[in-house]
Design goal:
The complex is a heterodimer. Chain A is an alpha+beta fold. Chain A has helices at residues 2-16, 25-54, 84-87, 152-161, 220-224, 226-232, and strands at residues 61-63, 69-71, 80-81, 107-113, 129-137, 168-176, 186-192, 197-202, 208-212, 216-217, 241-247. In chain B, the strands form 20 sheets. In chain B, strands 14-15-16-17-18-19-20-21-22 form a 9-stranded antiparallel β-sheet, with no helix packed on it. In chain B, strands 3, 4, 5, 6, 7, 8, 9 and 10 form an 8-stranded antiparallel β-sheet that branches. In chain B, strands 23-24-25-26-27 form a 5-stranded antiparallel β-sheet, with no helix packed on it.
Chain lengths: 255, 1027
C-alpha cells in the first residue's frame, strides 16, 4: 500500500513540474504577449497623435501657388484611415518608432464630426470635433469564454501599459434602444477598460468618489459608420476589439 | 485469524511484484523528471535573462531621456560611474539640425557607459549573456524637426547561442516584453513581429557577430520628449538638485477642476505678478470668500480704484448705498467733476452751466435753494438774486415800512423811495401820487422828460403841445409831426392805413418835385386826376413812373379788369374802333372777333395787316405751326417747329410772288417723313392755268371744253397724278444724259407677229371681197388636199391698237416659197382664172435619167395634149417643132417625134411678190390682207390663157398663173404702232383723254392765233424744231 502512496507522491511530484515555481508566471509569460498586441495599438495611436500635431497650426504646412510651403491657418488632416505612407512618407522620416512593423490589423483612423456627433464634416471647419481612434480585433485567446470580454490577463496588461485612461479599452454597449425586438440594437457604444466600481477621483471637498467604472462614450457617428462600426459594433459577428480613442481638443498650438 | 495468516502466507511475492512495478514506473518516469527539472531551470534562467535585459533597456532609456538634449545636439555625455574607457561618448553625428530625415546610428556603446543608470553591482558578463552592446538610433519625423532616440541592446549569448533554440530565444524575448526580440537570419525580429530591424542597419562591429539566437531589445517607445533632460513626469515630491522635475513646462489645464488647499500663490520672479484672467479676451471674476489682505497696493476696476498706503483713490464715481444712480444715490462723489450728491439727490453740489452751485432739491429745478456763481435762487426760483445784486421776486412782496432804493455807490441818494402816499423815483423826477392817481414826471418849475424805450399802452393820450412820433434814425426828424399850434399833421415817410380814411376836402398826392400826381376833389363836379394809374399789388414798377410809361394802365397781380354786367366796352370819346367784350366773345371794331366756342379768331374784314410777324402755335408754349414773317415784298411762311427762330436768312417755306420755296433737307439723316424737310405731300399737281383755246378747243366758263364735239372738263395744261395718269409735255432724264423721254422712246412699237401661208383655194378679189364669218374672204375656202390650187391670199392681218398719234404699220416678210420650176407644160386642172383655157401646169421630172427622146412613127391623131412634138413632112425637111392642140383635129404628120419628158423647156414661178392691202370696214380701218404669190405680166401670158394681149393693160399682173400648191408659200407679218414725229394731228389724239384739249393748246401754242407751236419746244434747247 505504501508503494502506491509513494507512487502517487511521485506522480504528483512530477505533475508539480508543470507548475511554475513563480506564482506570477502568467504575468511573466502571458502578459508580455498581450502587451505586444497592446503596444501596437498604443504605438500607432501615439504616432497618429504625432501626425495630427504635425498637421495642426502652426506646424501644419500647405503649398502656396508658387510651390512654397507656408503655414496653414487651419488643420490639414482629414477624416479617414491613416495609411502607412502617411506614417512613414517616402521622403523619409516617420512618426512610428524605429523598426516598428505596421500591422494591417491595427487601424488608425481620424474622424471629424459635427457638434451633434451624427455626421462627418471637414476637419478644417471651426465646429468640427476631431477624434483619433486606433483599434484592432482581439484574438479569441485573449477573450474570456464566459463573458466574451478580454480575459484578466489581457486586462492586467492593459492596466499596466495604459492605466485608467478612459479612452482605452474594449467597446461595450452602454445603452440599448428600448423596444420589443429580440435583437437589441445598441444606442450608445462606449469604451471600457475594466468593470466594477473603483475610485476614480475626488470631489471638491477632497473626498474620494467611488462610482461605477466610467466608459468613454463613443460618438454615434463613429460607432455606426465606417470600418470601426463594421468590425467592432456589428452584432452579426462576435469580434471583440481593442480601441484607443483621443478627442483632439487642440486645433492650434500656441508657440 | 489463522485463516488470515494463512491467507497472507499464500500471497508470497506480491510485494516483490509491486516493488518491481514501481521501480519500472520510476525508471520510466525519471528521465521525464530530469527533463522537467532541466526545463524548470531553463525557465528560471529565461526569466532572469529577460529581467536583466528589461532592466538594462529601461536604464538606457532613462539615460537617453536625461541626456536627450546633449545627444541630439551632438554633444558628449559623461558617465560618472563608468570606467575611464567608457566614460565619455560623443554623439557628434546626432548634432545636425537640418531638415534631413536620415536615420543616424551611433557606434556601438559598451554597456559600462550606462552604469549610472544600471543597478548597483550589475555584471556585464552573466551566465547567459556576454558583451552587452548598445546602439543608439536617431530618427526624425517626416517634417525633420522632431528627433527621436531609440535604444538597441544586443545581448550575445555566452555560449554563442548554441544552447539557445529558437523556441527558447523567442520565449526570452517574449518575457522581455514588446521590446524583446531575437536575431533570425538577416533581421532582428520583435515579439509577435511588432518590430523588425535588418541586421544591415547595425554597425559593422555588431553586424558581423550577429548570430541566430542573439537577443535584441529596443526601446520601442522612443525617447523624444525634448524636455531638456528631464522626464515628462511632474514629481509630486521635492527633488533636490532636480527642481526641474517639479516644474511644469506647459500650461496646466485643470479641466474645470479645483485646486484646493493652497497656502500661497507665488508669482514668478520675472514679472512678480499673479494674473487671474479668463480665456482669450474674456474677463473673469475673483471671488474671495473670507478675508482678503493686501499688504501693498490694491487696484481694482482697471485701476479706477486704488488703495495705497496712505490713501485710497477712486478715479470715477463713488456711490454709497444700494443705488448707483446720481439722482437717487444715498451719497455720490463724482471723481470726474467733483460733484457731490447726497440725500437721494436732494443735496447736490456741483457745476450748473459751468458754474459751481449748491442745490437743495430733488430734481434739476431747485426747490429750496440754488446757489451758483451767477445767481442764487430761493423757493423754486421765486426769488433770484444775480451776481450783480439784481433781485427778482415772483409773487407779491409787502413791505410795512419804507422801501428805498439807494443808488449805486451807497450815496445817500434815493433812486426810489415809496411810502403809503407817494412814490418818488430818481430824485423826484417821477412822482406817483396815490390820491391823485397821477404820475408826474418833473414839475412845472423843473420839467423832466419821459423816455419809454419799449411799448407804451395808453388808454387815453392827450398832447397839449406838439406831438412827434417815429424818430427817423440818424436825423432829428420824426415821421409824424402834429403841430400843437396849427394842428397840421406832417407825415414825413410812408402812411399805411389798415382801416378806412376820410378826406372831407381835397386829397393831393405830389411827387418829390411838388407836382400833383393824384388829385381828388370831393367837391361837386370835382374830378380826380391821376397822372398814372397802376392797379394791382404794390411794387416798385407799378407806381414808379418812367419815360416809357406814358399814360397807360398796367396790371399786375390778378391782371384782370372786370366790368360789371355782361358787356364791357373800351373806346374813345371821339369814336373810332371800340373793343367790346360780350357773350364770351371779344370783338375789335366790326372786322375782328373771337369765337370762344370755336376757339378761333375771325377776321371778317377785307384784309388783316401785320407789320411784323404772325405766329400760330399749338398752345401757348408749344411749337409754332405756322409763322409768317412779313418782309418787304414777300411773305415768308415758317413752320416754326421746335422753337425754330424766324429770321430772314433761313426759312422752311418761302412763299413769294408766284413761287414757293421749301427748305432743303439738310442735316437730317432720318427717313421719317415727319422729321425730314424739303418735300411736299399731295395727291396730284395740276397747272394753275386752264386750257385756253379757240374754236373747237375753246374753254367755257364753267371749266369744260369741247374737243371735236367731245366735252371734257377741268382741262389743265399739265397734271402730275402718280396714282393714275400724269400728263406733261416731256421729261428730260438726267440718268440718260439729259435725253428726253420722247427721244428715247421707240417710234416703232411691236404689237404682234403673225405667220401666214397659202392654204386657201378659190378666187377672190381682196380689193372688194368681204369676209365670211369664219374670217376668210368670200370666194375662198380651205384647201381640201395637197393638190389644191391655192389663192395668193394668205390671210388677214388685224390692225394693232395704237396710242394716240401712233400709226398702225404692218410688214410682211416671205419666209418660204417654192422656187421657180422648169418642165414641160402640160394641161392641168381647170382653166386659167378669168378664162376658159385649160390651166397649164408643169410636168416635172424628178429624175433626169428618165428623160428620153422618143421617135414615133405613127400617123394619126395628134396627142391630145399640149405635148410638144417635132415632125417632118418628108425626109428633106428639117424637123419642125410644134405641139398639138387638143381638139384641133390636126392630123399628125407622117413622121413626128414626141418630145416626152423633155427637160427644161418651160419655167414658171419666177417672180415672187409679197404685199399687204388695207381693209376697211364701215369706214374703219381693220387691218390688212396678206398677199403672197407669183405674179406674171398679164399681157405676156395672155396667150397661154387663151386670150390676147389686148385683153390686158400694160401694168396688169396675174397672180399665180400656174397652180401653187398648199404650204408652198409662207410669210411672217409684223404689226407695229408707229409714232410719226412729223405727222400727228388732233384726230390721232385719244379723244377720251381729259387733257386732249390741253395737249392741243400746248402743241399749238398758248397763243390761239398761232398755228405753230412756239411753246412746245424746250426753251433751253434753243431750237424751234420740236424734234
Amino acid at each position: 500500500m505504501y508503494i502506491w502512496v509513494i507512487l502517487a507522491t511521485f506522480m504528483l511530484a512530477l505533475y508539480s513540474f508543470n507548475l511554475s515555481y513563480r506564482s506570477d508566471i502568467r504575468e511573466i509569460e502571458l502578459e508580455p504577449l498581450a502587451r505586444s498586441l497592446i503596444s501596437k495599438v498604443l504605438i500607432k495611436q501615439q504616432a497618429g497623435g504625432q501626425y495630427i500635431k504635425a498637421h495642426t497650426p502652426p506646424y501644419a504646412k500647405i503649398t502656396n501657388e508658387e510651390g512654397i510651403p507656408v503655414s496653414a491657418s487651419s488643420v490639414t488632416y482629414s477624416p479617414g484611415v491613416l495609411s502607412i505612407e502617411q506614417f512613414t512618407p517616402e521622403n523619409g522620416g516617420s512618426y512610428l518608432p524605429y523598426g516598428f512593423v505596421d500591422d494591417e490589423n491595427v487601424i488608425t483612423e481620424i474622424y471629424c464630426i459635427d457638434e451633434a456627433g451624427t455626421s462627418s464634416v471637414p476637419c478644417s471647419e471651426e465646429n468640427s470635433k476631431p477624434y483619433l481612434l486606433t483599434y484592432t480585433v482581439l484574438p479569441q485567446k485573449w477573450l474570456s469564454i464566459k463573458t466574451g470580454v478580454p480575459s484578466n490577463d489581457f486586462l492586467n496588461a492593459m492596466k499596466d501599459m495604459v492605466g485608467d485612461d478612459p479612452g482605452f479599452g474594449y467597446p461595450i454597449c452602454l445603452k440599448y434602444i428600448e423596444g420589443d425586438s429580440e435583437e437589441k440594437k445598441c444606442d450608445q457604444l462606449g469604451l471600457r477598460s475594466r468593470t466594477g466600481t473603483y475610485k476614480i477621483g475626488y470631489d471638491e471637498d477632497g473626498n474620494s468618489l467611488v462610482s461605477e467604472a466610467l466608459a468613454f462614450e463613443i460618438p454615434k457617428y463613429i460607432a455606426n459608420n465606417g470600418t470601426f462600426a463594421e468590425t467592432c459594433n456589428n452584432s452579426s459577428n462576435n469580434d471583440m476589439c481593442l480601441a484607443y480613442i483621443y478627442k483632439i481638443s487642440i486645433k492650434k498650438y500656441t508657440e | 485469524m489463522l485463516k488470515e495468516i494463512n491467507k497472507l502466507r499464500s500471497q508470497r511475492g506480491s510485494l516483490m511484484v509491486e516493488a518491481l512495478a514501481m521501480l519500472g514506473l520510476i525508471s520510466m518516469v525519471t528521465p521525464v523528471v530530469y527533463k522537467k527539472a532541466a526545463e524548470r531551470t531553463n525557465e528560471m534562467q529565461d526569466i532572469n535573462a529577460a529581467s536583466q535585459v528589461r532592466t538594462v533597456v529601461n536604464g538606457i532609456d532613462a539615460y537617453l531621456r536625461d541626456n536627450y538634449s546633449v545627444i541630439t545636439s551632438g554633444g558628449t555625455v559623461t558617465s560618472n560611474s563608468a570606467s575611464e574607457s567608457y566614460k565619455e561618448v560623443n554623439y557628434a553625428d546626432f548634432g545636425f539640425n537640418d531638415s534631413s530625415t536620415e536615420t543616424k546610428t551611433s557606434a556601438p556603446i559598451n554597456i559600462e557607459h550606462f552604469r549610472d543608470y544600471l543597478p548597483i553591482g550589475f555584471q556585464n558578463q552573466g551566465k547567459i549573456f556576454k558583451d552587452l552592446q548598445v546602439v543608439i538610433k536617431e530618427t526624425k519625423d517626416p517634417e525633420g524637426t522632431r528627433k527621436a532616440l531609440t535604444t538597441i541592446l544586443v545581448a550575445h549569448p555566452k555560449d554563442g547561442g548554441q544552447g539557445f533554440t529558437k523556441i527558447r530565444t523567442s520565449r526570452i524575448a517574449s518575457m522581455i516584453g514588446t521590446n524583446g526580440g531575437y536575431v533570425d537570419g538577416d533581421k532582428a525580429t520583435g515579439v509577435q513581429g511588432v518590430w523588425q530591424i535588418p541586421t544591415d542597419e547595425f554597425p559593422d562591429e555588431i553586424k558581423n557577430n550577429l548570430k541566430d539566437g542573439t537577443i535584441v531589445a529596443t526601446s520601442l517607445e522612443s525617447v523624444a520628449d525634448g524636455t531638456g533632460g528631464g522626464t515628462n513626469v511632474l514629481y509630486r515630491v521635492a527633488m533636490p538638485g532636480r527642481e526641474d522635475l517639479n516644474m511644469m513646462e506647459t500650461t496646466l489645464n485643470m479641466g474645470g477642476k479645483n485646486i484646493s488647499n493652497i497656502t500661497n500663490l507665488i508669482a514668478d520672479t520675472q514679472n512678480n505678478t499673479v494674473n487671474i484672467k479668463g480665456n482669450a479676451d474674456t474677463e473673469t471674476t475673483l471671488n474671495v470668500t473670507g478675508d482678503g489682505v493686501f499688504s501693498s497696493s490694491l487696484k481694482a476696476a482697471r485701476e479706477n480704484f486704488l488703495a495705497e498706503e496712505g490713501y485710497t483713490q477712486i478715479k470715477q464715481k463713488l456711490y454709497v448705498g444700494d443705488s448707483i444712480e446720481d439722482s437717487s444715490a444715498k451719497f455720490m462723489v463724482d471723481g470726474n467733476t467733483g460733484s457731490i450728491s447726497a440725500l437721494g439727490g436732494n443735496l447736490y453740489a456741483g457745476y450748473y452751466n459751468g458754474n459751481p452751485y449748491l442745490r437743495f432739491g430733488s430734481n434739476a429745478s431747485p426747490r429750496l435753494l440754488k446757489v451758483d456763481e451767477s445767481q442764487a435762487s430761493f423757493m423754486e426760483d421765486k426769488v433770484t438774486i444775480d451776481a450783480a445784486g439784481n433781485t427778482d421776486i415772483v409773487g407779491d412782496t409787502s413791505i410795512d415800512g419804507t422801501l428805498a432804493a439807494v443808488q449805486s455807490g451807497g450815496e445817500n441818494k434815493y433812486a426810489f423811495t415809496t411810502d403809503a402816499e407817494e412814490a418818488q423815483f430818481y430824485d423826484e423826477t417821477l412822482h406817483v401820487l396815490k390820491d391823485a392817481r397821477r404820475v408826474d414826471i418833473g414839475n412845472e418849475g423843473n420839467p423832466a422828460n419821459l423816455r419809454v424805450y419799449g411799448e407804451t399802452i395808453l388808454n387815453d393820450l392827450t398832447v397839449e403841445q406838439d406831438f412827434k412820433a417815429g424818430h427817423v434814425a440818424g436825423t432829428s426828424d420824426y415821421g409824424l409831426n402834429v403841430n400843437g399850434g396849427t394842428g397840421n399833421v406832417l407825415i414825413k415817410k410812408d402812411l399805411e392805413v389798415n382801416g378806412s380814411g376820410t378826406f372831407n376836402d381835397l386829397f393831393f398826392v405830389r411827387d418829390q418835385g411838388g407836382n400833383d400826381v393824384l388829385t381828388v376833389n370831393s367837391a361837386a363836379n370835382g374830378k380826380t386826376y391821376i397822372k398814372e394809374l397802376a392797379v394791382g399789388n404794390s411794387s416798385a414798377n407799378n407806381y414808379q413812373g418812367g419815360t416809357d410809361r406814358g399814360t397807360h394802365i398796367s396790371l399786375s397781380g390778378q391782371k384782370t379788369i372786370l366790368a360789371g354786367g355782361d358787356e364791357f366796352t373800351i373806346g374813345t370819346t371821339g369814336g373810332g374802333i371800340k373793343i367790346k367784350a360780350e357773350d364770351q366773345k371779344l370783338s375789335l371794331g366790326s372786322g375782328v372777333r373771337t369765337d370762344q366756342d370755336k376757339n378761333e379768331l375771325v377776321i371778317t374784314s377785307n384784309q388783316a395787316q401785320l407789320n411784323s410777324a404772325l405766329r400760330i402755335r399749338t398752345d401757348d408754349q408749344g411749337a409754332g405751326i405756322l409763322a409768317i414773317n412779313n418782309e418787304t415784298d414777300s411773305s415768308k411762311f415758317y413752320q416754326d417747329k421746335d422753337g425754330y427762330t424766324m429770321s430772314t436768312s433761313d426759312y422752311p417755306i418761302y412763299i413769294r410772288k408766284g413761287a414757293i420755296e421749301i427748305m432743303p433737307n439738310e442735316g437730317t439723316g432720318t427717313s421719317s417723313d415727319s422729321e425730314r424737310f424739303g418735300y411736299i405731300k399731295a395727291d396730284r399737281f395740276v397747272s394753275n392755268n386752264r386750257f385756253v383755246g379757240s374754236g373747237n378747243n375753246a374753254q367755257f366758263p364753267d371749266g369744260t371744253a369741247s374737243i371735236d364735239g367731245n366735252t371734257v372738263s377741268n382741262p389743265y395744261t399739265y397734271e402730275v397724278n402718280p396714282a393714275y395718269t400724269s400728263m406733261m409735255n416731256d421729261i428730260k432724264l438726267s440718268s440718260r444724259g439729259g435725253a428726253r423721254l420722247s427721244d428715247i422712246l421707240p417710234d416703232f412699237i411691236n404689237k404682234g407677229i403673225y405667220v401666214l401661208d397659202n392654204t386657201y383655194e378659190g378666187n377672190s378679189d381682196w380689193e372688194t371681197a368681204q369676209f365670211k364669218s369664219d374670217g376668210v374672204l368670200q370666194g375662198l375656202s380651205d384647201c381640201s388636199d395637197v393638190n389644191c390650187d391655192t389663192s395668193p391670199w394668205l390671210g388677214f392681218i388685224p390692225t394693232p391698237h395704237c396710242p394716240p398719234n401712233y400709226a398702225a404699220v404692218a410688214t410682211i416678210t416671205p419666209i418660204r416659197f417654192n422656187m421657180a420650176q422648169a418642165g414641160i407644160a402640160i394641161q392641168g386642172d381647170g382653166t386659167f382664172p378669168g378664162g376658159s383655157s385649160p390651166r397649164v401646169t408643169i410636168a416635172q421630172t424628178n429624175n433626169p435619167k428618165n428623160a428620153e427622146l422618143k421617135i414615133s412613127e405613127n400617123g394619126g391623131t395628134a396627142v391630145d395634149s399640149y405635148l410638144p412634138f417635132a415632125y417632118i413632112t418628108d425626109n428633106s425637111q428639117d424637123p419642125k417643132n410644134s405641139y398639138s392642140i387638143a381638139g384641133s383635129g390636126m392630123q399628125s404628120p407622117t413622121y413626128w417625134v414626141n418630145f416626152v419628158n423633155h427637160p427644161y423647156n418651160f419655167q414658171i414661178n419666177t417672180w415672187l411678190n409679197t404685199t399687204i392691202k388695207k381693209y376697211y370696214q364701215d369706214s374703219k380701218f381693220q387691218g390688212w390682207h396678206g398677199i403672197m404669190g407669183f405674179i406674171y405680166p398679164a399681157q405676156q401670158y395672155a396667150e397661154i390663157q387663151g386670150k390676147s394681149q389686148s385683153d390686158y393693160k400694160s401694168d396688169d399682173i396675174i397672180w399665180n398663173l400656174f397652180p401653187v400648191r398648199p404650204q408652198e408659200l409662207s410669210a411672217i407679218a409684223t404689226i407695229y404702232c408707229y409714232f410719226d414725229r412729223e405727222q400727228y394731228s388732233t384726230p390721232m389724239v385719244d379723244p377720251y383723254l381729259p387733257h386732249n384739249a390741253a395737249i392741243g393748246s400746248i402743241r399749238y401754242g398758248h397763243d390761239a392765233q398761232n398755228s405753230k407751236s412756239v411753246n412746245y419746244n424746250d426753251p433751253t434747247l434753243n431750237y424751234d424744231n420740236q424734234w
